């Protein structure tokens, strides 16, 4: 069932969204395949932290990898490291591990979204669990999430340090 905190946000602002159920899946490629969504339209969430322990949420297409150095430059905090899974459980207590939705404000985190998402298409993301994705127009997501948009996505041809 869709995360209650997420559904409350979406319903409170009368967002235009749909829910798509799929077979149990844990990795971004599995989720894209099982929910019949192109990898560039499926958002994956990666959480990083700085030396002081402050966390940031990065949202990028499932078909891409995160350039952690580029995210650090966009966020203006260096260096950043990936947050360990144990920390994620504390940050997202109402989500299944690794299935957090891309709305950092629900959890007190700033959100950074990669600029390569197609702005005129639908965006899909996990609903807080491993069996549902939520779909909505990208611009609706942007309106609700209020992200900082930057470039930190590694595409197959780039050769920078990638970590997630």
Structure at a glance:
By secondary structure, this protein is of the alpha+beta class. It contains five helices and ten strands, in the order αβαβββαβαβββαββ.
Strand order of the largest sheet: 5-2-3-6-9
- Described by its quaternary structure, the protein is single chain
Largest sheet: 5 strands, mixed
- Name the CATH homologous superfamily: YbaK/aminoacyl-tRNA synthetase-associated domain
H-E string: HEHEEEHEHEEEHEE
What is the correct CATH architecture? Alpha-Beta Complex
Distance between the termini: 27 Å
Number of strands: 10
Helix content: 10-25%
CATH class, please? Alpha Beta
The overall pLDDT average reads 92
The low-confidence parts are 158-162
Coarse shape: globular
How does the helix and strand content classify structurally? alpha+beta
| Tally of DSSP helical segments | 5
Strand portion: 25-35%
Report Rg.
15 Å
Structurally, the number of domains stands at: 1
Question: Would you tell me which CATH topology applies?
Answer: YbaK protein
């Amino acid at each position: 069932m869709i995360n209650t905190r997420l559904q409350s946000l979406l319903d409170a602002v009368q967002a235009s969204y749909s829910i798509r159920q799929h077979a149990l899946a844990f990795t971004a490629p599995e989720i894209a395949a099982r929910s019949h969504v192109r990898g560039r339209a499926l958002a994956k969430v990666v959480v990083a932290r700085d030396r002081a322990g402050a966390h940031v949420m990065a949202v990028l297409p499932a078909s891409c990898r995160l350039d952690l150095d580029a995210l650090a430059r966009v966020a203006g905090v260096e260096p950043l490291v990936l947050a360990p899974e144990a920390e994620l459980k504390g940050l997202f207590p109402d989500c299944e591990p690794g299935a957090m939705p891309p709305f950092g404000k629900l959890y007190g985190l700033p959100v950074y979204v990669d600029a390569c998402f197609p702005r005129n298409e639908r965006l899909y993301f996990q609903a807080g669990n491993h069996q549902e994705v939520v779909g909505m127009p990208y611009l609706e997501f942007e309106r609700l999430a209020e992200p900082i948009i930057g470039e930190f996505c590694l595409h197959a041809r780039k050769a920078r340090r990638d970590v997630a």
